[in-house]
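Quick one: sequence plus pyridoxal-5'-phosphate SMILES, need structure tokens.
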Amino acid sequence: MDRKIFDKYVLKTYTRQPITIVKGRGMTVWDANGRQYLDFFPGYGAGNMGHCHPKIVEAIHKQVEQIIHVPNVYYNDAQGELARLIIENTFDGQVFFCNSGAEANEGVIKLARKRNPHKKTIITLKNSFHGRTIAAVTATGQPVYHNGFDPLPGGFEYCEINDIEMLKKMMADDVAAVMFEPILGEGGIVPVTPEFMKAARQFCDDYDALLILDEVQSGIGRTGKLFAYQYYDVEPDVLTMAKSLGGGVPIGAFAVKREYCGILKPGDHGSTFGGNPLACSAGVAVINAIADENLLENAVKMGGYLRENLEDLKTKHSIIKDIRGVGLMLGMELSVPGADIVKECLKRNVLLNCTHLTVLRIMPAINVEKDQIDRVIAVIDEVLGEVGKS
Ligand SMILES: Cc1ncc(COP(=O)(O)O)c(C=O)c1O
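Reply:
Sure thing.
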């Protein structure tokens, strides 16, 4: 299709790279001219399994031929099976399904506030990202995402990441929840320290508040655990997920510990498409494939290999300030804006992302292989060399 037609009819809420992607397989995508790219930021964090993973494609095909949508006034097997898999891989409780990360976070904000009429404040982190709907964007601790959308809902407060003293001072009897990403994603790939995680758990216990972890980006094997919180010796009360859970099909969900499962009662919350069999059968295929193909192990191994290579680049290029992250959720902080570097990599057939202005996000699918990492490292090396010279 002519891009002029696209631009005429599609609202311009995104800055788009000048390629039209028509096909994807594994780590590779093709544009409309047949040119191939290595995709090292697949699906904007929703591509942990790579493009068109055969088991996910097969599950979707099978489901499409059976039934596509079942309303939530009836049972559907795929929803039950996906809930079972999520709970058996996290903590005892139940799951609510929706269609996106923002929606999952909206749902848990409602749950936290419904729990106790005297507890309404939600503490989140500065530089966090929780989505674009009005409560999720307010929970997002970055003014740039708030500008122009006032009046925003009240009751949100923002703490510095890893500042235990600040969080301690902010805790009070009216706090309903402390909610954060174990690793800030949009905020520049910044992991929460084990000490902060432990303190947040303790403060939530002391003040009878919920600990909510947003694993929309860090979940589904991205870090080498199914959920990043599993690296910490701490369990959340509520866990949100989306992005890669559907292997490319839109889905969102939150898991709630058993003791909090009675807060949202029939009629309190819902979603027409939430938990539909198409998305859930894809989700079941995702979780099973991660286990069957040892992809958590691969994420740890390849994450280590990628990180070593990025650290080597850091010794070579002075514009690299820091390499951060866990498993295959890696960021490279630069002393210069990253947008032009992303463009230069694209010219060399490599897709990357820049967040927080100066942080390159390098998050290939968790079934990535060594030679694909080698090719991308060579391209980043070349581009940084040229940028460094200029
Ligand atoms: C940590 C986190 N939470 C929530 C969201 C919002 O998810 P969605 O775009 O599916 O609404 C994102 C999206 O980038 C995210 O990274």
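The domain at 3-52+294-389 is CATH 3.90.1150.10 (Aspartate Aminotransferase, domain 1). The chain has a mean pLDDT of 97.
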